[in-house]
Design a protein that fits this description.
about 200 residues, alpha/beta, Rossmann fold, 7-stranded mixed sheet, two-stranded antiparallel ribbon, 7 helices, INH-QAR, DJ-1/PfpI
């Protein structure tokens, strides 16, 4: 993957026992966009804590491009969900890393139960948010100040965006393309990946 000076980076965190489509759905959107429209100035990448392959919830093995130590400074951070998020809720090092990223990354996003991890890190305090429909009560129990938006495909609260479960990450990613490059570009990407829900 080659980048030029001034390139802005969208990074998707990968981890063991994540839900495959939470990461791969948005990856398809961002990769299609950045490869077909490089002049927009964005690139998409993936990373894990140590840069080693991760084994997803349904057995897919994915090799990240980077580790957290080598990933370039991000403009967008996407945190997937899946059963692997349960251990992250009490992982002090991971939560501290998220808070550190929040201080530097302009847009932090989550798919599915990734929002529960954002909540555990204190990043959703007093904000509207959503998650997998089966995790909404858990989200409320982690932080009662969150205003839940059940039924929303995604919730854009400016510098933080959360999405509902699994396939909703595709909708959120297209929304992000629209925010960053305009509605016409988002429509071009939607048509390019033949996504017509």
């Amino acid at each position: 993957m080659t980048t030029t000076p001034g390139t802005r980076h969208i990074g998707i965190l990968l981890f063991d026992v994540m839900e495959e489509l939470d990461a791969v759905g948005p990856w398809e959107v961002f990769a299609w966009w950045t490869r077909h429209f490089p002049a927009d100035g964005y690139t998409a990448t993936t990373f894990s804590s140590d840069g080693r392959p991760v084994t997803c919830e349904k057995g897919l093995v994915v090799q990240p491009h980077h580790s957290t130590a080598t990933v370039p400074p991000l403009d967008v951070l996407l945190h997937p969900g899946g059963d692997g998020t349960q251990a992250m809720l009490t992982d002090r090092a991971h939560l501290a890393w998220l808070c550190e990223q929040r201080a530097h990354v302009p847009l932090v996003t989550s798919v599915c139960t990734g929002s529960t991890v954002l909540a555990a890190a204190g990043l959703l305090r007093g904000r509207p948010a959503t998650s997998n429909r089966g995790a909404l009560e858990q989200l409320r129990s982690i932080d009662p100040t969150i205003t839940l938006r059940p039924g929303a495909r995604f919730v854009d609260d400016g510098d933080v965006i959360t999405s509902a479960g699994i396939s909703a990450g595709i909708d959120m990613a297209l929304h992000i393309v629209g925010r960053l490059a305009g509605r016409e570009r988002a429509q071009q990407v939607r048509e390019g990946i033949e996504y017509a829900p």
